């Protein structure tokens, strides 16, 4: 019976259900009879073989599971042993630190007790010494303290005063030396030879017969040329040379180019004169525009209006005291930028201020000093206020409003004062100053006159009993008119008439 059950279980796991059902039916039908020998049956043999395979697989799986379990158990034991070892080391270190801490605590307690004892000993000695000092000096503690503080204050005051004087002397010495170094470095950036200023230009006359063509019939050619250009031609002043005379350098340059073109062409007549002057004017305008762009590019200033750039281009043909305005502006800008870098000022403002500081000198259709003309011109074109202030203050006509303004003025003075910068000699300078004073003294009612500011101003003191207030204003106007008509001078000359009335009485 047991064998039958085992066979059924094995068959149900391996054979189809129909076969299992057949076997069960057979076994049930023969259960009352004697069990036959089925060991030789094919199905039984297959079932036994299958059972052996299943048992073998189960045994192999059991062996594999046991091996894996043993390996995991071994790893766990190894990790546990390592952790126990690390724990033992940590515990040992902790015990060592506890011992050190206990030793340090004990040492600190000993030191503290020692310090307390010393402190008590010092306090005792201090009280004993204080009592002895009070007995010897017959002073209380407050009185002695007051005297000691007074003595210390007195000594400190002397020491502070002495130290302050030493520091001031050191600072003055260092500042003086440093200022010289800065100025020398700045001046080293640009040192140029001067170019002598002329009010005339010369054109070489190759053929003497051309002189008659220039004059024309009844002088019509030369009159038209002088009318169109605003210059004066001198044909007989120097052999083989035509002298062009004019105080406006641009008009003089236009006349020179136009005359050279006419002489080269040979056809000198009114229509050709008009065309040559017009062409020369256009060429000069282009040159002025190009020179203005080049000047701004060289100094590194770009954000300014186009009209201002064109005005700066006129510097090419303008001279002041023998200095070409373009070269002078480049020199002033380099010096100013160098000083601004050294002193931590705004380099952009200084550059623009140096670039524009003399722009009023090339504006000929306005009256006044070049400073006032330049300030008005820059304000009309929206130049920043900080830059305009630099232009307005570069001759110290008013107090400096910023460090940048002072640096622009200083750079201009360095450029004008360096050796070789200006061509006017001492004798010419003195003569010009004397001529200005003599022109003012030639009027009735003038008490004394002084030329100041390098000839830029004439101060006239009138006799108050001869000239009244209304006549003073008229006198200043007449003196300025006389100087304008009779003398040659750079820039403008300001005439200041001063009338002072003094009344005195004697008390008896």
TrEMBL record:
Where is the chain membrane-spanning? 6-24
Domain HD span(s) in chain numbering:
325-417
Classification via SUPFAM superfamilies: Eukaryotic type KH-domain (KH-domain type I), HD-domain/PDEase-like
Query: Coiled-coil intervals in this record?
Result: 48-135
**GO molecular function list:** hydrolase activity; RNA binding; RNA endonuclease activity
* UniProt-listed Enzyme Commission number(s): 3.1.-.-
Q: Does the keyword Lipoprotein apply?
A: no
> According to its record, what are the GO cellular component terms?
membrane
> What Pfam families does UniProt report for this protein, alphabetically?
HD, KH_1, RNase_Y_N
Keywords, in A-Z order:
Coiled coil, Endonuclease, Hydrolase, Membrane, Nuclease, RNA-binding, Transmembrane, Transmembrane helix
**What biological-process terms (Gene Ontology) are attached?**
mRNA catabolic process
Matching InterPro entries, A to Z? HD/PDEase_dom (IPR003607), HD_domain (IPR006674), HDIG_dom (IPR006675), KH_dom (IPR004087), KH_dom_type_1 (IPR004088), KH_dom_type_1_sf (IPR036612), Ribonuclease_Y (IPR017705), RNase_Y_N (IPR022711)
The record's section on CDD domains has:
HDc (cd00077), KH-I_RNaseY (cd22431)
NCBIfam families (UniProt xref): HDIG, RNase_Y
Q: What is this protein called?
A: Ribonuclease Y
Output the lineage of the source organism: Bacteria, Katanobacteria
